[in-house]
């Protein structure tokens, strides 16, 4: 903009990174990217009087993005008025010394007003209803029809007073706007909330449901009750019922309460019924399963005894005899119990009988009579298997039975993982024996892997080295050990603080922007420097030069160091020399032996950073997570 033969200065009070609009003597509030940004240019001074003449041209410069839309309405929520911008009066320009002012016109439109009233005097509306008053911030012109907005809910329960409020409508459904505020008055009708009494019959006997024919005997009450009314429970006409389905008798034990007072809610009386089932027993009988042999009298003494009682529908498991074999010296043989006709039975309104069968065999050896049961042997590489304790039913074998490991030498290779087969011999006291194979599972020995995690700070500002104040914040390196099947999560340690003031400016931590991963891991933290702004030229005495802090060099981190190594604190605060390309090459493990993943979100832009970008951007803190693990190598 220009004024012929005149000099004018302007100051911008507030700048937005998104958009800026400039005008002379008035205010714009452009909307950019969804955020209202305001810029105002005020004339500071002029060299002489400016008159409203044709040759005095004013050029208005607007800087805006393509998405910018000027705000032409303003809602005054305090006064319930919507203002609409009508434009500038180009013919009216107020000219004063050192200032020109353009006059903009704004037209007010009173918002419609909504009022809620109670239908009953002395009964105020609850806050829950008053909070539903509609709001209308639209802009109306004279002659427009305004339609009343309905409340969000038209029936509200006031729990505290036990009232029901019902919206009955407005005094007018719509109104024509004539330049004055329109008011809609809504009426809410209040009535006491009605309550009812119900009866429910339930079973208090665990596992047995109350039959529906008894539930239907519950009393019915069609009366309406209001708050604070006392109600007495109605007794059932019959209090005992025979239940042929469940095979028992139901007895009414009373309600949970003889009476109740209505307390802002319906009343329910719960009648309790108990069930007594008919009782039954289980009996046992033994029979011979060998046609030409009768059971000896001694086997009858092994019959189980069951004094328990059972109810209809119960499942009864047959009890085993005290022993499963019986030596018959008379018949020179052994009786073996072969089981019952049924392992279990369900009571069906009668007693239950189990019939056990015994089979006779003349003098079999122990090896023919007994079957050793074995379990798998599991060891790790380098351990020695012991198969003599893998016979799980040894206590049930004849007294004096012994187990001997007869696995051939070298058949089980304990130097490498794998599945092998061993062999044991079960020696019985009668001289017979049985050989049994035993599976041996040799598991791999646990493996470990050690990882080194180090930190390094670098300057993101060209020609500016990190000072000692920043390098002193460098986190401590560490060494971590994990097994092949375990992953370790690493979160880089953020420096504290993230802003460091020095004599000539401020260093700001941008985050860990780079992760270098080989057999070890390095987190590289970036710092940006912002120099102090020079003040406006003023007659000032020459400042005394101050020596700038000189950082000391820091030796590289020892790759072989362990966590907790006594590194000198001053050494860790010194500058680190730039790495040569060939230094610390990534260590590669055997193919398939281990697998690493590094997930480090970008904690800051890697593009060159300007001062404006730093001022208008938020500080980005870097977080990185490294999951280190090793896959198990299959043989």
Automatic annotation (TrEMBL):
Highest taxon, organism lineage: Bacteria
Bias-annotated ranges (Polar residues): 599-608
Ranges of compositional bias, category Pro residues: 536-558
Segments of skewed composition (Basic and acidic residues): 569-583
InterPro entries: LPXTG_anchor, Rib, Rib_alpha_Esp_rpt, SHIRT, YSIRK_signal_dom
Residues of the signal peptide: 1-41
Domain (Gram-positive cocci surface proteins LPxTG) ranges: 600-635
Residue numbers spanned by region Disordered: 532-609
Protein's name according to its UniProt entry: LPXTG cell wall surface protein
